[in-house]
Design a protein that fits this description.
The complex is a heterodimer of chains A (108) and B (236).
Chain A lengths: L4 H24 L8 H24 L7 H17 L2 H18 L4
Helix pairs in contact in A: 3-4
Chain B lengths: L2 H15 L3 H18 L3 H11 L2 H12 L4 H12 L1 H13 L4 H9 L3 H13 L5 H30 L11 H10 L6 H16 L7 H25 L1
Helix pairs in contact in B: 1-9, 2-3, 2-4, 2-9, 3-9, 4-5, 6-8, 8-9, 11-12
The chains are: A mainly alpha (108), B mainly alpha (236).
Chain lengths: 108, 236
């Protein structure tokens, strides 16, 4: 990480203000303007549109062949989080498999 | 409005918020661990958690900071992850829009996934709930969760400093992202959006400082909306 302390606080500050503005948006408006349907639809897709793009290069592009321990841990996290419909179960399962794998391959 | 019902609405909110702690505690701890590992100071880590209080976007910002992305792209990507909360705000507005400004400001600050979900569920169950009770309930849910979110980030940050390099803590971040995304996949449209996001991001990894991710996100959002519209058309 190569940001100065000022830059890091700037990032935190703008994210704090921006996130608050998003959360307050409709609560702050006078009257109950309904959200336009197309906009609502786009908003619903934002996390699914951003997070996979962030994670795919982390799992897959670390060299020509992805590290098998990382790949299996990643797949476990997805499978468990999906089946359980729960973030934390997926995290626990993925982390458990990751460290079991590191241990088994002698990396730990 | 009698103070007793407002108080019991607040306590009902606390009760409905408590189960979420199971999920918030490990998530908060993990953020503390990876933030310290990534090179943030303790104050910066806590600043993030207390001022932003939005887990997924905090992880997103952190990951892009580790990759030394341009600041503008970090902000755009992290705020994009939070855009869904505008939807929460719109869903809460018919219920809480009549509350005094200071209460709406407080609700805005504490409007995260769990407080929104628990409150909207309760408002739908009890349509005749008075306004002051609705506000009290919402704040009760937030009051149950927020202290755990902040204090366990601190615990994670303190532990994180002691974890040796060989543990490859940085890989916990992708595991956390995947675990966040998987439960959001609710239809073919979500699958399509997630797929396009991943593929386009992989194709554009060569683009400088996080800009490829934004192109991927825009393509994915368009894909999700189109597939959903198409599926609705077929059903009709």
């Amino acid at each position: 990480m190569s940001y100065s302390a000022t830059e890091i606080w700037l990032i935190i500050g703008i994210l704090a203000v921006g996130t608050f503005a998003i959360r307050f948006s409709f609560l702050g408006l006078i009257g109950n303007k309904p959200i336009p349907p197309l906009m609502e639809r786009m908003l619903r897709f934002t996390p699914v549109a951003v997070l996979p793009g962030m994670v795919a290069p982390l799992v897959l592009s670390g060299g020509a062949i992805p590290d098998p321990v990382r790949l299996i841990a990643a797949l476990t996290a997805v499978a468990v989080a999906y089946r359980k419909r729960n973030v934390v179960w997926g995290m626990f399962a993925g982390i458990a498999v990751f460290y079991a794998g590191l241990f088994a391959t002698g990396a730990l | 409005m009698p103070a007793t019902t407002t108080k019991s609405a607040f306590l009902a909110g606390v009760r409905d918020g408590l189960p979420f702690i199971v999920m918030v505690v490990p998530f908060a701890m993990l953020f503390g661990v990876v933030a310290i590992e990534a090179g943030l100071t303790l104050a910066q880590t806590m600043g993030f958690t207390i001022l932003v209080i939005a887990g997924a976007s905090q992880f997103a910002a952190l990951q892009l900071m580790v990759e030394n992305a341009a600041i503008g792209f970090i902000l755009l990507a992290a705020l994009a992850v939070n855009l869904r909360m505008a939807m929460y705000s719109a869903a809460l507005a018919p219920h809480l829009g009549g509350a005094p400004m200071w209460q709406r400001l407080l609700v805005g600050y504490l409007n995260f996934d769990q407080s929104y979900m628990a409150s909207v569920a309760r408002y739908d169950d009890t349509p005749d709930m008075p306004l002051s009770d609705k506000v009290a309930f919402f704040l009760g849910v937030a009051a149950a969760i927020t202290p755990f979110w902040c204090s366990f980030t601190l615990v994670g940050a303190l532990i994180g400093a002691a974890i040796p390099e060989s543990y490859q803590i940085e890989f916990i971040m992708p595991i956390a992202f995947l675990s966040m995304v998987a439960p959001m996949i609710k239809s073919l449209a979500h699958v399509a959006a997630a797929f396009v996001s991943a593929v386009v991001a992989l194709l554009l990894v060569w683009m400088p400082s996080g800009s490829g991710l934004l192109v991927a996100a825009v393509c994915a959002m368009g894909t999700g909306v189109m597939v959903e519209t198409w599926m609705e058309g077929r059903r009709a």
